[in-house]
Amino acid sequence: MDDTEEMAATPYAEAIGPLPVLRDTTTHVPAWERETSRMGVADSAAHALFRGVDPISPGTIFAKQMDRLPHALVPSLADLSGSITVVRRRREVGYFRRFSSFSEAFHDPVPATPSALELVLPPPYLLPPDGEEPPAPYLTKARDARQGLTGYLVGWHQGEYSSCPLALRGQYYVKAPQWWSDYEVLYGVMAEPPLVLTYAREELRRGDPAAWSVFRAEWAVSTAVALLQAYDERRVALLYPPRLRDWIRSVGATNIAADARGEPDDEVEGKLLALLRLLDELPHTSAFVERLTNRAPNRRDRAGWVSVVLEVGREGSRALVDEDLAPYELPYSTAVTEARLAVPNPWGAAVARRRHLVRFPGGGDVPPSSAYEPVPPVSAPPEPRPPTVVPPRRGDNAERSQRVPRRIVAADALEHGDVPDHRFDALHHLPPRGVALGLANFLGVDADELERYPAGYLVSALCHLVVDVSQGVLSWCRTVPEEGSTDLEGLLNLVGRRALRDAFTRSLPRVREGAEDRRRRWSEVGDGYPEGPPSRRARLEEYPSGWGR
């Protein structure tokens, strides 16, 4: 912005007259008359919007917009836009003149990805507060207007949007494109809409390629700035969709973090890249969103951010998750990792109290006839003792030597103590369609993958899981390794929570194949598959292979 532009932009109250007061209706008509008497604005698209929304009293609609622009400036004729007759704040002076120059030189179609060459205003983009920022409620209302199938792209200053009838909104506002959901931010993200939406709204409505190319580049910069500000103010990382992160990388972290001279700020650039790398590692599934909302169900925006911390190492800055989101395996901070090891959960405490007890297949402290004879654990090295004759047992290994049960110590992020009691209470009233979501919360899998199966298939898979794991543990106990071997990892691979999750997922296709096979065989018999009447289920005895092979 040069000195000529700075001098050409004067406060609206000094150049035209007092701004209308929204609550004082007596000020609407005089303010509207002063506005229409300005040179070059009577036939603008902005005034057509005011008259179209309320033909009887357009001054009231004008007052609703100007109520959000207390810092409005009157631009020069070269910088006057048809979409808005004022400049919202001082940092935007000269924008429309720059956009007009860019649009005249733009002759190519919209590129595949945005770039820094399509940014109308030069850096810096990460600016300190100057008292002219829009309040958070204005940005929230602009975000609400974009959602839904009939959403529209509006600026935070367009307070008249709610007064416009639904049938007329398509004539005055930019409809959200079909691809917009892939680049939209979640609720609670204070990302300002692009400037081109304010000063070139009519060009966007006509589908001008230059306007849409600028729109994409400015949206990438605006969301990147919101990402950095959210970390600086709240130490959180906003969850952006993958395609929006691609736009930010396409514009370039170096260009977004540049200062007023165009020189990159290495610290800001490293911070932005670290946050983007962390977002790439986080899962973007409905189950993960459910995990976030369970931590603060009273906050509407809880699904949109994760607490993070930046740790500087030899490889530069690295963003790490600073809250425990088990059962998900994420790049956690040092504080979270140490807290997990220092504070055992109730399940870990129960295991620690019983580690000195010897357990046998089937439970209990008394060994079955087919088990080896154990030796109680000791704290000091055992004294020499005569060998003990072990009764023979079935299987390939007929004899086993005495051994002291080893302590199984494993640092596993999937702790059983992360399942609160209210989760179990919720299962008592779980509808059939909620079985997939309930299992996803416990197993740490994607609920969308489980919803493809009926509830009966999921219950059948659980039954298979119980049988398979029980047989696996029994087989492991019958093949206890020789003294000195370390096959305890095999037991963890059988009963660990990850192993149960993988076994459950693998059993779902088997259950589905078994169900389809049973239906096919019953259709060959001619009576159909026995879905309901118990009297017809006796015919299953003719098929000893059973269900869910």
Written overview of the protein:
With 549 residues, this protein is mainly α. 44% of the residues lie in helices and 5% in strands. The chain is built from 23 helices and seven strands. The chain has helices at 3-8, 12-15, 28-36, 45-53, 58-66, 95-105, 136-146, 166-172, 196-199, 201-205, 209-234, 242-251, 253-256, 266-281, 286-295, 334-342, 346-353, 421-427, 435-443, 447-450, 455-478, 488-495, 497-525; strands spanning 10-11, 73-74, 152-153, 174-175, 236-238, 305-313, 316-321. The strands form three sheets. A three-stranded antiparallel sheet has the order 5-6-7, with helices on one face. A hairpin with a 2-residue loop joins strand 6 and strand 7. The radius of gyration is 33 Å and the shape is elongated.
List the helices and strands and how they pair.
Blueprint: H1 3-8, E1 10-11, H2 12-15, H3 28-36, H4 45-53, H5 58-66, E2 73-74, H6 95-105, H7 136-146, E3 152-153, H8 166-172, E4 174-175, H9 196-199, H10 201-205, H11 209-234, E5 236-238, H12 242-251, H13 253-256, H14 266-281, H15 286-295, E6 305-313, E7 316-321, H16 334-342, H17 346-353, H18 421-427, H19 435-443, H20 447-450, H21 455-478, H22 488-495, H23 497-525
Helix pairs in contact: 3-5, 4-5, 11-12, 21-22, 21-23, 22-23
- The helix-strand sequence is HEHHHHEHHEHEHHHEHHHHEEHHHHHHHH
Please outline the major beta sheet. Answer: 3 strands, antiparallel
**What share of residues is helical?**
40-55%
- State the end-to-end distance: 74 Å
| DSSP E strands, number | 7
Strand content: under 5%
Strands in their spatial order, largest beta sheet: 5-6-7
Regions with little confidence, pLDDT below 50 for 5+ residues? 1-7, 346-363, 367-382, 387-425, 528-549
Shape: elongated
SS content category: mainly alpha
Give the helix tally. Answer: 23
Mean pLDDT: 77
- Rg over CA atoms, rounded to whole Å, is 33 Å
